[in-house]
Design brief:
There is one protein chain. With 395 residues, the chain is an alpha/beta fold. Helix content is 35%, strand content 16%. The chain has 11 helices and 16 strands. It has helices at residues 7-17, 36-46, 54-67, 78-88, 105-113, 132-142, 174-184, 235-245, 269-299, 334-343, 370-378, and strands at residues 71-75, 96-100, 117-121, 143-146, 149-152, 159-165, 187-191, 199-200, 203-204, 211-215, 228-232, 306-308, 315-316, 322-326, 365-366, 379-382. Helix 1 packs across helix 9 (269-299). The structure holds pyridoxal-5'-phosphate.
């Protein structure tokens, strides 16, 4: 049966969660309350703003330490991190790469940059990420492991990698997915762009993939203005990641020698300086965001037709973006709710249009996407800046 909301009471409930002195609440804004000015000023004062300087090394070390990986390589953005992750996993022309249809467009774009073909798979409601059981059934139908790797019998092409996305910061079921990838000889890549500060069974996301990508765009949990990083637990892959993201230049005092086609994807020192200041505050941001998530859950606990998405049981999420999940009977009200909240100074967003519906990916392969199609209609992201978590609960 179709039902509709009491929009006024939803607006009132949302407002009860926010500080009262704000008349516009953005979806996610950065917070610079630490050493940002000091570190960036030092870059300007010393002239080290670009491709050389101490902050890149420092930021990479801090990232590796925080996430627990062997090596982190800082790059210009999350998209370039994904691009290099795919290259490092051996993805090349005419390969197929499995990925959720419900993701940000960068995931699919990066596959196209390699001349490879996105192959979209379904997500599950429990994690909002790739459903390992459904994928397992699907691979049993279409895949064949041979000496050339895992072959899609429908196309004859190689299924080279799976990109698992931690949607809105919530960890996917990594142990099931990595087991599945092992069985089929498919490389696992984590798109951890949104999940800095999210842990899967006590370990930081980004540790299960052969390589993983994170993003420090302005809307992410910590920002470097624009930026990203590649994470890996292989020293060898880490060294190669550094080499190909820095034009593949051979070290020499003055000579320009390069041993392969490299990329100018290095993160500038001034951005890394910002990153060093931001990562110092990450534990505080995480606490504030968790508080905000709890306040949302409490405020909406009795609201009919609406629930707040909660972190999967096996994880500790960063709650990067809090998300409303509408009951199926109420899904028709989604667009109206998005419109009314935005018109009333509360920024909300529907999820991304599913990848297989975008013109450039329409012809790509996909499995049955019933759950993604259903979730697309029922999700709304709501304001989630860490600063909103600071105030005392007034609900
Ligand atoms: C932000 C994001 C990216 C891309 O990161 P940029 O730094 O914006 O290039 C990739 N994947 C997902 C899921 C993202 O949210």
């Amino acid at each position: 049966m179709k039902r509709s909301f009491d929009v006024d009471s939803i607006l009132k409930t949302l407002r009860s969660v926010f500080p009262t002195d704000k008349d516009f609440i953005s979806l996610h804004e950065p917070q610079f309350s630490g050493n940002e000015w000091n570190y960036v000023k030092e870059c300007l004062d010393t002239g080290w703003v670009s491709s050389v300087g101490k902050y890149v090394d420092k930021f990479e070390q801090q990232l590796a330490q925080y996430t627990g990986v062997k090596r982190a390589v800082a790059v210009v953005n999350g998209t370039s991190a994904l691009h290099i992750c795919l290259r490092l996993a051996g993805v090349s022309y005419d390969d197929e790469v499995l990925m959720p249809a419900m993701t940000f467009v960068a995931t699919a774009n990066a596959v196209k940059y390699c001349g490879a073909i996105p192959h979209f798979v379904d997500s599950e409601e429990k994690t909002l990420g790739v459903d390992p059981r459904k994928l397992s059934t699907y691979l049993a139908e279409i895949a064949d492991v041979s000496s050339k790797g895992c072959i899609n019998q429908l196309t004859g092409r190689r299924l080279k990698a799976l990109i698992a996305v931690h949607t809105f910061g919530h960890p996917v079921d990594l142990s099931s997915l990595s087991e599945l990838c092992n069985n089929y000889n498919i490389a696992l890549i984590e798109d951890a762009a949104e999940s800095v500060g999210s842990f899967y069974k006590e370990k930081h996301t980004g540790n299960w993939g052969l390589v993983s990508a994170i993003s420090f765009n302005g809307n992410k949990i910590i920002t470097t203005g624009g930026g990203g990083a590649i994470l890996t637990n292989s020293e060898e892959i880490g060294a190669l990641a550094k080499h190909i993201t820095t034009t593949a230049k051979l070290p020499h005092k003055w000579a320009f020698n390069h041993d392969m086609v490299g990329y100018n994807y290095r993160m500038p020192n001034i951005n890394a300086a910002l990153g060093c200041a931001q990562i110092e505050q990450l534990p505080v941001f995480l606490k504030e965001k968790r508080k905000l998530a709890e306040r949302y859950q409490f405020a909406f606990r009795r609201m009919e037709g609406i629930s707040l998405f909660k972190e999967p049981v096996f994880s500790k999420s960063n709650y990067w973006l809090n998300t409303i999940l509408l009951d199926k009977d109420y899904a028709d009200g989604r667009d109206m709710l998005v419109e009314v909240t935005n018109n009333n100074g509360i920024m909300t967003r529907p999820p991304w249009t599913l990848m297989h519906k975008l013109p450039m990916f329409k012809k790509c392969l996909h499995m049955d996407l019933t759950v993604s199609e259903d979730l697309e209609k029922r999700l709304i992201s709501i304001p989630s800046s860490a600063s909103l978590g600071v105030m005392d609960a007034n609900v």
